[in-house]
Amino acid sequence: MSLILMIFGAAAVAVLLAYIIVKYLPLNLRWIPSIILLIVTVFLGYKIYAGIMEPIKFNQQKVIKYSSVVESLKIIRDAEVKYYEVYGKYTKDKAGLIKFIDSAQLALTETKTIVEQVNKGGGVIIDEEKRVTDTIGYEPVLKYFKDRDYKNMFKVPGVDGVEFEVEIAEVEKVQGLVVPTFRARTPKTGILAGMNESLVKQELEAIESDQIKGEYVSVGSLEEVTTGGNWPPKYDKGAKKED
Asked: Which pTM value belongs to this model?
């Protein structure tokens, strides 16, 4: 809006100067307003360019900032998922989750179908198939976090002294079936601190499908059974290429 007002204001000034030149200014002095108009034109051109580029630069910078935050949230998400595989629940104990990655073991299982003879009575014996799951070994959880900075996964990248909020809850998915949930998040305001306030305000109200919606960058949910993040697919492209 301010850019539009500036353009209209400059146009009004140009018209006013042109009127003054034609109406009142002697011929030998008309070079003075010409210089003024040239200066105003250059200034206006610069402001228009800056006004156009500012949102573009803002979007480029926010993607860079968000990308490192999303990577940390992915590590937290993966750690919570492994913790759930072992204990059947999530945790909000940050130090405990790091220790879990360092020391816990995941059971390796094998499921196979076997045939058993079942006596149905009266001398009737039939073959029945059964699926049996056996533990065939163990592997360290640490294997899944190789070359990932899980020791610092709770620190919000680029925001000094701030850690992600981690919460756990339970959701009744269907009547009688209660399922654990978790959520890790951090406010956008901290990540975007020092950037254009007007553009930050717009960012906090983002609802587009190609944007990180809302006031937080988060993964998981306390109200729904999900381990997904609220970021669009473009933030996962880098990870897919590396894989």
From this structure: 0.75
